[in-house]
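Changelog-linked ticket: heme C example.
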Amino acid sequence: MGKRHGTRRPLGIAFAASLAAAALVGGCDRSPKGIPVPGGDPDRGKVAIADYGCGACHVIPGVRGAHGMVGPPLTQFARRAYIAGEAPNTTRALVQWISSPQSIEPGTAMPNLGISDARARDIAAYLYTLR
Ligand code: HEC
């Protein structure tokens, strides 16, 4: 019985597969940090963050008066692996979180603030400058 299923593929294949997986993981890990958000402008984002009062709930480096402790600090956000522990920290998920956090985590203490997709892109672009 064991013999029938027993012919293992050579190690080389497993090795190649793990290399490919490592390359994929590396790619995902890099994308939020270096690559700018398409259509997003970090300078506009910084202004929008102040306008929407994100700083009432978050510590946000570089934004005046952003010392809130209701939510987690957004310090070094570009290095964060997950958004609110719910979604992997990708550009797409971050834009969605900013415009509609309740759609990712219903009942979260972060309210939907009615932010447009374009404005959310600007804000995401700013958050990804925080390393
Ligand atoms: C009323 C308070 C409040 C406001 C206003 C608010 N947030 Fe949040 N935010 C939270 C809370 C609470 C969490 C944690 C949610 C969770 O983990 O479920 C959070 C989570 C986040 C996260 C994920 C943080 C992490 O560590 O994973 C980001 C990014 C974020 N908020 C960005 C923003 C931005 C940008 C704005 C302004 C447009 C904003 N927030 C406004 C309360 C707020």
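Closing comment: Example verified and attached. Strands lie at 82-83, 87-88. The domain at 9-127 is CATH 2.60.40.420 (Immunoglobulin-like).
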